[in-house]
Specification:
Layout (H helix, E strand, L loop, with lengths): L8 E4 L6 E4 L8 H17 L6 H4 L4 H12 L5 H6 L4 H30 L4 H9 L5 H8 L2 H25 L7 H13 L12
Antiparallel strand pairs: 1-2
Helix pairs in contact: 1-3, 3-8, 5-6, 5-7, 5-8
Amino acid sequence: MWTRDRPSVTFPVRIPDRSAVALPDRPAPLCAQYVHHELGHAMELAWRSPGLPLAERWRRPPVIAEWGALVVETLGLSAAWLASLGVPADTAERVAAHCRYEDRYTRALAALILRCAARPERLEEEVARTSGDLIDPRHVREETERAGYWSAVFEGHALADRTVAGFTERWGECWWGEPGSWRELREQLTAGPAGLSSNGPVR
């Protein structure tokens, strides 16, 4: 499925063993981020226990879903990974650098949205103080309506960072070439961190 200018998204459908992935249809460097992120969601969906009732298989804590997607998304930040796919070295580095910039922006935006959601009466002041005129306060106000989603993204980044750091310590910068890293990721996502509730969308 291709979405024009709408956001990319992955979701299960009412066909056994199938998921739908929607991606923008306009090629751009950032598509490397979209493809890897949604691939991570598709993998996490596929790894859910087949023994669960269908309704439970379709809903997992959003933090777990984002955790898995963000681990896979880190591949798009790696010029070595992109080059291993056959992308020319100079192009791989430019795309990876673009995705690394976007990664930093997304983390900062998530933190800003959560801060403004906690202090709505000072939203405009917080946006102006932290971003100047780079971010429209109206956009932040709209996104505070999805504070649950942004909280999942924020926590998912922290979990993904720890996961990737552990993989890198064990297998090196090219951890993605070791089958054991993917087995361990599946085990971690299946077990999940304790105390998470099931709510919110997967994006």
